[in-house]
Amino acid sequence: YVGESLRWLLAKGKTRRAGQTVARIASFNKIANPVSGDEHSLLSEYKVHCKKHHSSYLALVRTPEMCRRTICLSLVLFGVNFGYFGMTYNNAELAGDRYLNFFLGSLTETIAYGAGGFVVMRFGRKRTLFACLLSGSVCCLLSGVISRSGGWNDNFIVIFSVLGRLAMAACFCACDTFTAELFPTIVRNMGMGVCSLVGRVGSALAPQVSGLRDVAFAQLPPLIFAAAAFVGAMVILLLPETVGQRLPDTVEDVERSGAKPGPQDAHTSQSKLNGKPGVQVQSAQLVNHV
């Protein structure tokens, strides 16, 4: 019962289905159909424009800005998955009652997922991810360097491990949304797939690295997990914030927006690209109107 994304239909040049979708939405909302008269020609112009931009996996690395975003987001998702699952596996090695440690870990994750959405909307994707990755890295590092000599030292290790797990779990509330918003509509699903694949490589490597405590020294796995999360936090700084910004539709939108995308910049650059003022912007307005 859920229709296809109107923005995706426009970006793929499926104007007839887009018109049908708009008509169905307008009918359900009991408003006048905005796709009539000149709007049909607008959709046709947008279709001609989008046909010039063939979507393929090569588009993710063909241009400088797209290559930068693909590499950075892949590193971020690797750090998030690698750090999160690493700290989860490390939960079994904590001192004290393992059932209590499991309960504390589950409780912190519940808090992270419940509050993460509000934090992302209040402070933005970029700042939330940076803060969570950095704090998760610090907590993981501290849990690894503190000597396991019993007493309060073991308690501090448990506290930092639980807090680090909370921070890494909160990353999942922002990383997928942030990744999707940074890729243009024409290759968004491909970009999400590639970055998710790299992230799952981190998930698969986490238990292998956790096993290094048996062949090296106990502090080595937390140090590696902390380093991966720290790299992800630093890479986040190279990416633009997406809250309040119009989503890019084509690779050209991404290249022209650079590191500081904005509605005004997108309007100017797209007008130059089409030779017809505001075709892209009017299409976006049509999507927002419906």
Automatic annotation (TrEMBL):
Any single Gene Ontology cellular-component annotation: membrane
Positions of region (Disordered): 253-278
Name used for this protein in its record: Major facilitator superfamily (MFS) profile domain-containing protein
Superkingdom of origin: Eukaryota
Keyword Transmembrane appears in the UniProt entry: yes
Keywords annotated in UniProt: Membrane, Transmembrane, Transmembrane helix
GO molecular function list: transmembrane transporter activity
Originating organism: Elysia chlorotica
Pfam families reported in the protein's UniProt record: Sugar_tr
Location in or out of the cell: Membrane
Transmembrane segments: 70-87, 99-121, 128-150, 156-178, 190-210, 216-239
The keyword Transport is annotated on this UniProt entry: no
UniProt topology in membrane: Multi-pass membrane protein
PANTHER family from the UniProt entry: SOLUTE CARRIER FAMILY 22 MEMBER
